[in-house]
Write a structure and sequence with these properties.
This protein is mainly α. 82% of the residues lie in helices and 0% in strands.
Length: 62
C-alpha cells in the first residue's frame, strides 16, 4: 500500500480490530504529518491533542 490510500485503509483495518487500535493508528498518522512541520507548530499541535485527550479521558472516567 502506498500513497494516499495507505492511512485510510490502515485506520479502517485498525477500527475493525478495536477502537483503541483505531485511535492509535490515527495518532500515528498525526505524528507522521507533524514531523514535517515547524517544531513550534508541531509542539503546539501536540499540546492541543493532549488537552483534547485529557478532556475525553475525564469525561469517560466519571
Amino acid at each position: 500500500m502506498r500513497g494516499a490510500a495507505y492511512w485510510p485503509k490502515e485506520i479502517k483495518r485498525a477500527d475493525r480490530s478495536s477502537p483503541k487500535m483505531g485511535a492509535l493508528r490515527r495518532m500515528d498518522r498525526l505524528r507522521s504529518t507533524l514531523q514535517h512541520l515547524d517544531p513550534v507548530m508541531a509542539n503546539r499541535a501536540w499540546r492541543e491533542v493532549g488537552d483534547a485527550l485529557q478532556r475525553i479521558t475525564d469525561r469517560y472516567t466519571q
